[in-house]
Every structure is written in C-alpha cells, then in structure tokens.
Amino acid sequence: MSSIPTSIEQTQELLEQGNYVADRSLATTLFLALRMQRPLFLEGEAGVGKTEIAKVLSDTLGRRLVRLQCYEGLDVNSAVYEWNYSRQMLEIRLAEASGNVDREHLANDVFSEQFLIERPLLQALRAHDGGAPVLLIDELDRTDEPFEAFLLELLSDYQISIPEIGTVKAVEPPLVIITSNRTREIHDALKRRCLYHWVDFPSVEREQEIVARKMPGIDVQLSQQLVAFVQRLRQEDLFKLPGIAETLDWADALVQLDQVSLDPQGIDDTLGTLLKYQDDIAKIRGSEAASILEEVKLQLSASQPKNG
C-alpha cells in the first residue's frame, strides 16, 4: 500500500506509475482532493479518461476499488443496501416448522447484518485492509435528483442510517471520485461538496504520449498519423466525437492489421472502432476521410525538420 502523495509532483508520479498521462492542472486538483479528503468531481466528454483515474488510484495506492455505475432509476436498494428477503423467509419458515416462534426475537434476528446485502455505497464505508477504499460513482448524470439528494447527505458525514440496525459511519472517509458526461447538469449543492475539474480532450503531444504508453510497440509514423487524424476529426460536427478510449481502440485495430501508415482504405475499414454512430461513419467514410488524411499528411510533413 502506498501513502497519500504529499506534493503535486508525487501525485503526477503516482498517475504515471499507472500509465495515466495527466497535465499539472488535473494532478493539482487530485492532490488537493486527496489531502483535503474531499470528493473529486470530474466532468467531460465520454472516453476522455475520467473513470480511469479511479482505477489508477486503486492500483497505485493499493486500495480496494468500489464502483457504483449509475443509471436512470437507481435507488437506495441498488446503491446502498437491501435485505435478503429469500433468506429471511426461509429463516421464518424454519422457525415456524420447529414450533418455537418468539416473534420479537425472530424479528430482530431476520433484520440482523447476516441478512443484509451490502451495495457499493455501504461497502465503501466499511473498514478495509490497506486503508479506505476508492469509491467511484460513475456517470452520476444518468441518475435523477432524488438520488443526488441522498448522495449529498452521504457525502456530508460519510454515514448511512439503517433503521433496523442503526448508523454505519466510516472510520476513514473513502477516496471519492465522481464522474459525469454532462448529459444533464448536476445540482450546485452537490458540486460544492467536491473539488471540480473539467477533463478535456488531450493536446496532440499528450495524446501521442498516451498512445506510446498504452501501445509501446506501435510504429511511430502510424502513431503520429492516427493521433493527428483523430485531433482533426474532433473539429468536425459529429454526434459523438472520439475520445482517448476510441483513439486507443483504433490504434490497437490498426496494429492488429499490421498497418504502419494510414491509407484511405484502412481508415474506411476500421472507422467502426473510432466512431460509434452510423451517421458519423457515413459522413466521414470515403472522400471526406481521404481529404482529412491528405491534410494530416501535409501537416506532418511540414512539421518535420528539413535536412541540410
């Protein structure tokens, strides 16, 4: 288990250990969130690396990762706890069959912790070997406002009240990472509990470094061309712009096809790994892709140092 970093530089080193390429602004916000024991709220387009930060923290700090994947209609039973009703009913029937039924004792028995099913938020409050876990609340914007209100209460005191058992309070607050793809606005009250950072698409240099780290055997020319192509593609009016995750998927696909350079046919054949909507693929495939590739190659050629 690693200790919480004591400087921004150590935070950057921690992320680099997990092959996460972060700019200083993100490392600074993460460092402050860890030192101040405040949730980190990460907002940005899908596929830019928000979720990955929680995974890297879990790996490099040696902490358990507890993930709550949000969705529409998420409620307390799915996020916090629920009772194992089938086991409770079995226990009641066994007690009735034995003929020794003390109703008050039985009621206390079936609502004890052995019949409790812990969901992610309750799991995150429990003590764990190696320190407080990393709690990832992923894609919060998919839930509704009542769940936000409950989460606000939880993040205030890091405790949950279970009527039949009592209050469960964290001995040590978990390291909380909240992500949002901004499909809707999150309430200001919750954001005020957190430190905030917008995770943007990476620069050319940072995206090339990410590809080099994640795909160490990739041809340099191919890496430069595909990153430049993706960067240019993000200037187009598409339904879903490709994120870093899609760049890496595309790079992997091209390597699997033994390509060392981009060509129009290769782009058309593999666009489905980069773009995820048919309208976007139809718009780019063919002459548009060839035109962007030609522009990219001219740009890369002009940036190469001249000999002599």
What do these coordinates show?
By secondary structure, the protein is an alpha/beta fold. The protein has three domains: 8-74 and 128-198, P-loop containing nucleotide triphosphate hydrolases (Rossmann fold, 3-Layer(aba) Sandwich), CATH 3.40.50; 82-113; 204-298. 51% of the residues lie in helices and 12% in strands. The protein has helices at 8-17, 24-36, 50-61, 76-79, 85-98, 103-110, 120-125, 145-157, 188-192, 204-214, 220-233, 244-256, 264-274, 278-284, 287-303; strands at 40-43, 65-69, 81-83, 116-118, 134-138, 159-162, 166-169, 175-180, 195-198. The strands form three sheets. Strands 2-5-8-1-9 form a five-stranded parallel beta sheet. The radius of gyration is 25 Å and the shape is elongated. The termini are far apart.
Which features does this protein show?
single chain; 308 residues; alpha/beta; Rossmann fold; two-stranded antiparallel sheet; 15 helices; 9 strands; 51% helix; 12% strand; elongated
Q: Based on helices, strands and strand pairing, what is the structural class?
A: alpha/beta
How much strand content do the residues show? 5-15%
Main β-sheet description:
5 strands, parallel
Q: Let me know the CATH homologous superfamily of the largest domain.
A: P-loop containing nucleotide triphosphate hydrolases
CATH architecture heading of the largest domain: 3-Layer(aba) Sandwich
> What is the CATH domain class of the largest domain?
Alpha Beta
Distance between the termini: 53 Å
Number of domains: 3
Radius of gyration: 25 Å
Number of strands: 9
Using the coordinates shown, work out and report the CATH topology of the largest domain: Rossmann fold
SSE pattern: HHEHEHEHHEHEHEEEHEHHHHHH
Helix content class: 40-55%
Categorize the overall geometry: elongated
The low-confidence runs, each spanning 5 or more residues with pLDDT under 50, are none
Mean pLDDT: 91
